[in-house]
Amino acid sequence: MPRPNDSLSNFELMVMLALIRLGDEAYGVPVSQQIADYRGKEVSIGSVYAALERLSSKGFVSSELGESTAERGGRAKRYFKVTRKGLQEVKETQRALVGLWKGLTELQDKKA
Amino acid sequence: MRRQPQKGWITDFGKWLLEHFSGSPNNDAILGDLEEQYARGKSRLWYSKEVAAAIVVRWCGEVFTKRILIMKRMAVWTVVLTATFFLGFWTARSTLLIPVEVPSMDSFKRQMEDRGVATDPYNIRGFLQIQLDEARTNDRRQRSAASKKRVEDFEKKLAEAQRRFLERRR
Predict the structure, then answer these.
(1) Distance from CA of B70 to the nearest CA of A (A)
(2) Nearest-angstrom CA–CA distance, A46 and A63
(3) Do the chains contact at B33 and A27, CB–CB below 8 Å?
(4) CB pairs under 8 A between A and B
(5) What ipTM, to 2 d.p.?
């Protein structure tokens, strides 16, 4: 059973889903853009990294340094990847949310 | 629109701020991401907002993760400061402590003069008074001419000392 601190917050879940979507190309900029596209609101890179640090301390994501480019002032990219434990946690969260969503007529789109 | 990597004050200042106030292990990656976006046409305002957000988010996260420790420390300091305040308050109001009045220089001089210390620093009159008392006691016991003479001598000496003392005082 997961510890209470190991559960995913709303934003952390979004970050995890963005990481899964992006695969091997997941670093700060595309993750924040991905979330911003779906949310319709801009997301600061700092808050993405803060969430990634928390997820990393929980063991849900791992990271490795990538190539450095002149465009980035010679700084290397840090690529993040969802771990097996992280994937398991996302699946459990999905199962819980889908279960809670089912049968809620108030949340269903009303068709004319 | 792509710009050349900027080495302007905004990126330098952003770097300095993040290095000094963020303390994130991903500072380098954050700065790289910010510079990448800045080079792709984001504004200076955007860059500044991102730096500020990174610092604020980091600090809020630190406070949240260390909230138990922070609350414990706040509780300890509240107890310590309250105890110190009440101890100081009690000490100031306590009747157990006798207030010590420091006399002014004038009143000190007056007191010394009243005791004759200022004009009779060796307290000759006091000394002679004691000698006279002893001589009188001896005289009452012995009833001799010598003891009587001794009493008379001391009476004269004391009278002389008293006269000089009053003269000096004037």
Answers:
(1) 18
(2) 16
(3) yes
(4) 83
(5) 0.80
Contact B29 A44 (CB under 8 A): no
Contact B27, B19 (CB under 8 A): yes
Choose the closest CB to A45 out of B39, B50, B56. B50
CB within 8 Å: A70 and B53: no
Note whether B57 contacts A44, CB cutoff 8 Å.
yes
Nearest to A73 among B26, B32, B54 (CB): B32
Query: Which range among A36-50, A94-108, B68-82 shows the weakest confidence by mean pLDDT?
Result: A94-108
Q: What is the pLDDT of residues A32-68, one digit of tens each?
A: 999 999 999 889 999 999 999 999 999 999 999 988 8
Q: For residue B133, which amino acid is it? A: D
Domains of chain A in start order, with CATH, are 4-93 (1.10.10.10)
Q: What is the chain B residue with the closest CA to A66?
A: B29
The pTM assigned to this predicted structure is 0.60
Euclidean distance between CA atoms A15 and A11, whole angstroms: 6
Residue extents of the structural domains in chain B: 9-65, 105-169
